[in-house]
DNA sequence: CTGCGATAAATTGTTGACAATAAGCAATCT
DNA sequence: AGATTGCTTATTGTCAACAATTTATCGCAG
């Protein structure tokens, strides 16, 4: 226990820890898009000085979670509808690629893991447990992307997902959407289990595009 | 003229300018992958203090050009063969998406621009002017990605291209490779001009995959 | 001559202070 | 009343110094 804390402190410098913490606070909703991030306040909050805070904010800027305007400071990024649409389109091909790569390399254990996740989601859908479904959905996506074996892809994908969390209407997902999403997952997993890269790309790509469509229809005048 | 300088100074803070400058120096080859970046030295070089230098390095870290190891500093990123391969794979789908999007929205003027670039490259190939070809090649890629209208895509794509510049064997391209590349470009441009999104995706995707293949065959034991 | 250990130098990590810029506010003028 | 100017306050931008850590150097024993 004491070792872990030590290791964490050792492996990660202050700005890196800060970056994770500020990211957590932003994505957790404590700040809203457009909000100003006061450097002194953040420094005070974590009991450190402004230097490391600024470094952390620079990293967050590069990953698209905050914007900087000179002499005015850092602000939580505000994602317009068209920007969110752009993010979705990029995310679609990245996820398609993840599906394709995974179909080429998945092991028997991997297939088992996928089927287990699907079974859990089946249960969540039947129980109409939306909260659980969202959690499992994220786990499924994360597993696919991580198991694809391409770290560049995984990193980019997760960055985009974080950016999309800034787009508030995100959680407007209803029962029918959950059902549709689940069906698409089944097609994805089948293609992977069949080790069919082309079909996997198609299924994964379409899944994200469909998710974008569901979001679009939930809001008005997207794009 | 005076206005532009004013505007630049106004819109860009020191760390942002520094980031561009350090990036230029790294990609220009003044530093090699694995090289240590001395903060004091960099600060001295630009006549400023270490604070802004560290902020700039944090940004470069997030864009994958430098790595940081705690208490040891920043180093120019060293891209392994398998990492380069991963970058290529992601770049392939991004470029495919760019081609698809451009095919959906290109204007008559845009098609003219593409044909002009192709004509120039024709001349470069005939003259066996490798240097000119590389330059036009980059211009073509940049135009396609920028004209796709998806800024997220453009940003990610350019980031990956920069990362690949860290992979030295990059410039091992010979006469035959130039010819093959040129033929692939023709297929791409035809698909865009025909406003055929699916064909454009395919052509653009395969072009980058082929480029990866040419690089692979030039080196030994890639991946 | 080589390997080891202690000391010295260099480098990074962090801080607090100061300068420059922007935002808030009150008094004045039209 | 509304706009404008000037002042006050808050915030960001930058710096130089100090603490902590790592790297280099040198002496020394085997």
TrEMBL record, chains A, B:
Keyword Transcription regulation on entry: yes
GO MF annotations, alphabetized: DNA binding; DNA-binding transcription factor activity
Keyword Transcription: yes
Pfam family, one: FCD
Keywords assigned: DNA-binding, Transcription, Transcription regulation
Domain spans labelled HTH gntR-type: 12-79
Entry-linked PANTHER family: GLUCONATE OPERON TRANSCRIPTIONAL REPRESSOR, TRANSCRIPTIONAL REGULATOR, GNTR FAMILY
Name the record gives this protein: GntR family transcriptional regulator
């Amino acid at each position: 226990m004491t070792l872990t804390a030590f290791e964490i402190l050792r492996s990660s410098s202050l700005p890196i820890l800060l970056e994770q913490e500020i990211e957590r606070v932003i994505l957790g909703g404590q700040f809203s898009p457009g909000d100003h991030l006061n450097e002194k306040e953040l420094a005070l909050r974590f009991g450190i000085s402004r230097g490391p805070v600024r470094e952390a904010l620079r990293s967050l800027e590069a990953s698209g979670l905050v914007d900087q305007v000179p002499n005015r400071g850092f602000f939580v990024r505000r994602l317009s509808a068209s920007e969110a649409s752009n993010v979705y389109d990029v995310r679609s091909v990245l996820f398609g690629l993840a599906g394709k790569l995974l179909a080429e390399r998945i092991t028997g254990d991997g297939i088992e893991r996928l089927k287990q996740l699907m079974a859990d989601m089946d249960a969540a859908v039947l129980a109409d447990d939306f909260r659980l479904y969202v959690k499992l959905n994220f786990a499924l996506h994360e597993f696919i992307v991580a198991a694809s074996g391409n770290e560049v892809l995984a990193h980019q994908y997760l960055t985009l997902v974080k950016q999309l969390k800034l787009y508030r209407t995100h959680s407007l997902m209803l029962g029918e959407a959950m059902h549709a999403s689940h069906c698409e997952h089944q097609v994805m997993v089948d293609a992977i289990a069949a080790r069919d890269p082309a079909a996997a790309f198609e299924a994964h790509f379409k899944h994200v595009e469909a998710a974008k469509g569901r979001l679009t229809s939930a809001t008005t005048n997207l794009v």
